[in-house]
């Protein structure tokens, strides 16, 4: 059954690349883009790179709906790796705070051409060429449409750097930063708690540090005693062994 839900008619399909990371899926109009980015290898233990060879790449292609039916050979894979890396860098740069670095996406655009076609009374961008050009042209066309509809900013890379899985942020204030709070959110919070405890361990042995420099209370079970720990609010932090 086909559903007319966008500038193109898309079949509602699952996205195996994204599902293996349990990341929030994008709406159908951005699903090919999200899936393409999540073909990369990440996670713990690492998942396979779905573009590692023609067999897995074509298996991935068949799981999604494409306007033409591209097929990939070994020669199609290197340009797709490069485009994937450039797009991932663009996505991360767009969402980053502070000075912008300009990823090298423009030179990929030079190798692609599109025509404008009409389908059921709607204008559509149709990529020219075959193989990787079909895949790349379709993905970039989807991004163009998503930008016009204000959806692009909701597609994000997980802020846990070794992860960087691409998820769709449906939250009202668009504030999500982890692809999965129970995995990456907890992991990063735990790391931060350990770093704070290490710092407190250093401060304990250094009496010249100005009082009140540390606003973070000691975690329960730590060996830090005295007014700072006693006055701190109760926390749910993880108790870690402290240096003696
Ligand atoms: Zn993550």
Bound molecules: zinc ion
**Which structural class best describes the helix and strand composition?**
mainly alpha
String of helices and strands = EEHHHHHEEHEEHH
Percentage of residues assigned to helices: 25-40%
CATH architecture of the largest domain: Orthogonal Bundle
What is the CATH class designation of the largest domain? Mainly Alpha
Assembly level = single chain
Main beta-sheet strand count, sense and barrel state: 2 strands, antiparallel
Mean pLDDT: 80
Strand content: 5-15%
Count of DSSP H/I helices: 8
Cα distance spanning the termini: 67 Å
Shape by Cα distribution: globular
Tell me the Rg in angstroms: 23 Å
Q: Give the tally of structural domains.
A: 2
Low-pLDDT ranges = 1-11, 207-244
Return the CATH topology of the largest domain: Jann2411-like fold
| Beta-strand segment tally | 6
Main sheet: strand order = 1-2
Overview of the structural elements:
The protein is mostly helical. It folds into two domains: 3-171, Jann2411-like fold (Orthogonal Bundle), CATH 1.10.3300; 183-231, no CATH class. Helix content is 37%, strand content 9%. The protein contains eight helices and six strands; from the N terminus they run ββαααααββαββαα. A two-stranded antiparallel ribbon has the order 1-2. A hairpin with an 8-residue loop joins β5 and β6. The radius of gyration is 23 Å and the shape is globular. It starts with a strand and ends in a 13-residue tail after the last helix.
